[in-house]
Amino acid sequence: MRLLLDTHIFLWAISDDDRLTARVRKAIEDRRHSVFVSAATTWEIAIKWRAGKLELPLPPDDLVPTGIARSHFDILPISVAHTLAAANLPMHHSDPFDRILIAQAMIENATLITVDEKIMRYTVPVFA
């Protein structure tokens, strides 16, 4: 299975946050699954941290690459196809980071792991 982590899920996974359910943790730790972190997620973390809207134990330059490497996650770059698909999504959700994740999940045949109910309005496979 191909899994794409929403930003909050990525942060919970690398910080051992209790909000990450045992079911989700088991899925992302299962080596049979390919687990992706979008470049949009790393961008969102950096922007929100710099703006003072996100507290982190380390600066994103340290936290993100270390978290990805330790967790054996793969990076999913943002392509032109992803951006065009995001622009064509219904406006159920206005967050540009979430919209690109939705488009990426659709194009890359991945299941998006999230607890964001707005994302669940789209026709994208979601694992919560």
Structural class: alpha/beta
- What is the arithmetic mean of pLDDT? 96
Share in β-strands:
5-15%
The number of distinct structural domains comes to 1
User: What kind of sheet is the major sheet?
Assistant: 5 strands, parallel
Fourth-tier CATH superfamily name: 5'-nuclease
Strand order of the largest sheet: 3-2-1-4-5
CATH topology: Rossmann fold
Can you tell me the overall shape? globular
Q: Determine Rg (CA atoms, Å).
A: 14 Å
In helices, the fraction of residues equals 40-55%
Give the low-confidence spans. Answer: none
CATH first level: Alpha Beta
**What is the CATH-assigned architecture?**
3-Layer(aba) Sandwich
The total beta strand count reads 5
Determine the number of helices (DSSP H or I, runs of at least 4 residues).
6
Compile the SSE list and pairings.
Blueprint lengths: L1 E4 L1 H9 L6 H8 L4 E5 H12 L9 H12 L2 E3 L3 H8 L8 H12 L3 E3 L12 E2 L1
Give structural notes:
The protein is an alpha/beta fold and 128 residues long. It has a single domain (2-127), classed as 5'-nuclease (Rossmann fold, 3-Layer(aba) Sandwich). The chain has six helices and five strands; from the N terminus they run E-H-H-E-H-H-E-H-H-E-E. Helix 5 (80-87) packs across helix 6 (96-107). The longest helix is centred in the middle third of the chain and has 12 residues, at 39-50. The chain is globular and about 35 Å long.
